[in-house]
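Hey,

Quick one before I head out. I ran the complex with adenosine-5'-triphosphate overnight. Inputs first:
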Amino acid sequence: MKFSVCGKGGSGKSTVVALLAAEARRRGLRVLVVDSDESNSGLFRLLGFPHPPVPLMEMLGGKKGLKKRMGKKDILAEEEIRLDGIPSPYLVEKDGLGLVAIGKILQALEGCACPMGALSREFLKKLRLRKGEVAFVDMEAGVEHFGRGVEEGIDGVLLVVEPSLESMTLAERVKELASGVGKPIWAVLNKVSSQKIEERLKEILQGKGIEVIGVIPHDEEVFEASLEGRPIERGKAAEGISRVLERLMGGFSDAAPRRAVGAARGR
Ligand SMILES: Nc1ncnc2c1ncn2[C@@H]1O[C@H](COP(=O)(O)OP(=O)(O)OP(=O)(O)O)[C@@H](O)[C@H]1O
Ligand SMILES: [Mg+2]
């Protein structure tokens, strides 16, 4: 199953991806995280890798090389992409957790990020996961990825909502856009500091026809971990994610998370 994680800038997309990845590993699933955010570059740290993977964009000769190919039907050479088929500099992997990055904007005046959107779309469309494998895609902030068709190859959209008006307003647009491309959408509330706020957000989202499948409290540990560039320890936030993963995968029986832990850690 492939899930995209989207939402407003700073709402907690990368945090939620890291929490979901850790929880899925605990349940014995093999996990691929796809970094589809062309601006931020710190996701590898949240996942506990010492360095990021070489972006897939480099495999294709960088942005210039890809631009030339964009008009052609087949951007990537392979018909199907399997997890085991991604060569090592482009995939960093440890204990059943893998990370690939689409590409990063590194220079001023480099041009728009459209080629990266096209690469994200094609990569996710061609990515074939086996039973017991799951992918989480850390999206760029906002909704442009919908316009670029990045969601075409994914199975469901997880929207991260923080307690802010902007975040709620964006939720409505994301719901429309996801429905427009026929993808199921769920929301997870993040940075929630009280029962009252949780209830209010749930009520508003329900009114917009968006189901809330989990709540992650505001957690100092999460904030400190990101500040120090290290993985999030188990704590309040990690507890909140367990239900989210269960609900996400519950609808897709072939990949339902297993309950086993310890023995399934290594590959
Ligand atoms: N539940 C939480 N409790 C406390 N702080 C949080 C929580 N979730 C996220 N944060 C903090 O909020 C900030 C933004 O989080 P994060 O980087 O995950 O958001 P993002 O949506 O990926 O941002 P961007 O749009 O820049 O990619 C970080 O400093 C992070 O540590
Ligand atoms: Mg992020």
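Residues 71-75, 254-267 have pLDDT under 50 and may be disordered.

Talk tomorrow,
K.
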